[in-house]
Specification:
74% helix; 340 residues
Length: 340
């Protein structure tokens, strides 16, 4: 039975997101969306007057990409928290063909998420952001106000200024909708309308608020790679001890005759980890050691998942065909060959 055109189009869209980022993380992609806002601001002065009305389309597209890619980034960063991701993505539904394509590495969960997140208004952007932080923090969150109010300390004039930014952005989305659907072919660049460049500034303020709050989440005790009472060196020692513990767990699943090979693997594994982190940090001119250490801590969850999978496979394989049984079978075969 052939796939429906709708399913094929959905999978092509997901695969396009996977291809588009070209190996970069979705966190990097979110940063690129913000950089496009800066580029829009720089290009505006030199754009022909007839094209300037399309600035609002660019603003809305960048904001939509920004929230979309942060949702996708969560799949890359928080894979150690499946229950949290299940709640975060509860509104995303995919068909079996898409799941099969994901398991065959055509694309991954993050790409599926990126292809299924969209916003058509500022209210939708804020709803997505509120849900994002509510799930990650484990408590209700009003974006951007919960964080903004802390920094303004209730300053009425600042709160009015920030509320005005949100109002302008809502009008930008409204104007984008009218322009795209040709209910207002003139766009929003009329004498009485908002300054387009100010609207870009508003969008940059909103994306910066999101990123500030996301950074606070990443360094929180729940998710941070360095605990509150740790130094960086202590965090590295803790992760190394966890990896040692993972190898001890694998060893407990192994036959005694596998221990020598396992010890070689452990030595090579640690060498690989640090070599990988040194390579990733080599793109930086200064503080390469600090960057390598940061990479080591950030990628720790990958190591744990890999070693847990290795232990599981060892348990399964040895349960199916223990080495003692293999030796007995080999001895029987040798006797049969000798008897022949």
């Amino acid at each position: 039975m052939s796939k429906s055109p709708k399913r094929l189009a959905s999978q092509q869209k997901i695969a396009e997101f996977a291809k588009r980022r070209g190996g970069a993380s979705y966190h990097d992609a979110a940063g690129a969306a913000e950089e496009r806002l800066w580029q829009l601001k720089e290009d505006y002065a030199n754009a022909p007057a007839s094209y300037r009305k399309y600035l609002l389309v660019g603003i809305c597209t960048c904001l939509e990409s920004h929230i979309r890619y942060f949702y996708a980034a969560a799949a890359e960063v928080f894979d150690d928290f499946p229950d949290m991701l299940r709640e975060l993505y509860k509104d995303i539904h995919v068909d079996t063909d898409t799941l099969i394509s994901a398991t065959t590495k055509t694309f991954g969960l993050a790409d599926i998420v990126a292809a299924n997140i969209s916003v058509s208004s500022l209210a939708a952007y804020r709803d997505r952001a509120c849900h994002f932080f509510t799930v990650l923090l484990g408590k209700p969150h009003d974006f951007p106000w919960d964080s903004v109010n802390i920094h303004t300390d209730g300053d009425i004039s600042l709160n009015k200024e920030y509320a005005a930014k949100l109002d302008r952005l809502e009008r930008v989305f409204d104007a984008r909708h009218k322009l795209i659907h040709e209910t207002d072919v003139l766009g929003f660049l009329k004498d009485s309308d908002d300054d387009p460049l100010q609207c870009v500034e508003d969008a940059l303020w909103l994306t910066s608020q999101f990123e500030i709050q996301y950074s606070d989440v990443l360094i929180s005790p729940k998710y941070g790679s360095i605990k509150d009472n740790e130094s960086t060196d202590e965090a590295v020692q803790r992760v190394c001890a966890e990896i040692e513990g993972a190898f001890d767990h694998i060893k407990a699943q192994c036959d005694d005759r596998q221990h020598t090979s396992l010890d070689k693997l452990k030595t090579a594994f640690f060498q690989y980890l640090w070599a990988r982190c040194d390579f990733l940090a080599s793109v930086f001119i200064v503080k390469q050691s600090e960057w390598a250490t940061a990479q080591f801590l950030d990628l720790a969850h990958e190591y744990k998942n890999m070693l847990a999978d290795l232990a599981f496979k060892q348990t399964y394989l040895l349960s199916k065909y223990p080495i003692d049984e293999q030796e007995a079978d080999l001895l029987d075969m040798t006797k049969e060959d000798g008897g022949a």
